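Quick log. Single chain, no ligands specified.
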Amino acid sequence: MARLCFCAAQISEYHCELRACYSISKLVMKTTILRNSRCLLLAAGLVALLCGATSGPEEKKAAYSAGQKAPSFQAKTIDGKTINFPSDYKGKLVLLDFWATWCGPCRAELPNVVSAYQQYHAKNFDVLGVSLDHPQQGPKLVKFVQENNMPWPQIYDGKYWKADLAVKYGIRSIPRPILVDGDTGIILAEGPEARGHRLSALLEKALAAKARK
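-> predicted structure:
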C-alpha cells in the first residue's frame, strides 16, 4: 500500500507503474482475505473439536440410549456429599447432565436446564451435573455454579474427557443430558431429545405419567 501511495503522488510520470502497483495491491488484499477466511474456518473447527459437540445426525452418541438401564454408581460431589445413583432419586426423575464450563454449547443450553429445574423441581424433578472440566478447575467450577444459579449437585474429578463417569457412560460429546427414572433406573431420553424446548415437554409428560402410578 505504501508503494501504491508513492505511485499515486507521481501519477503523470509513472502511470504504468501505478497500474502495476494497483494490481499487486489487489492481489495482496485477496490473499489476506483468503488467509483470514482459512483462519476463521480453522478456529471454528478447533472450537467444535474442543467442545466435542455437534448438531444434527452427526452428533456423537453416548453408549446408552432411551429404554436401557442407566449404569449405577457412587460418587462424591464438589461439596463432599456422596451420591448413590440412581437409588438416591427414588420417586423422582433426574437429569444426569454431562457438561463443562469451557463448552460453549453447554453454556447455551444452561438457561433451559435452570428453567426446567425451577419449574419442575417441586414436582420431583432433579438434576445431577457431571463436569468434564480440566484438572485443577474445582474453584472455577464452584464459582461458575454459584454465579449461574445452579443449585443442584455437581460431580467433578478433574479428568476432562477421561472423567470416570464420562468413560462409564461412553460420553463422546457434550452437552449430553440423560433423563433417568429414579425408581427403575431406565433412561427415558438422552442427548437432543432431552435438550432445549423438548426438555420441558418431556418432563411435563413423564412427571404426569409418574404421578398416575
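Strands lie at 73-76, 82-85, 93-99, 125-131, 154-156, 176-181, 187-190.
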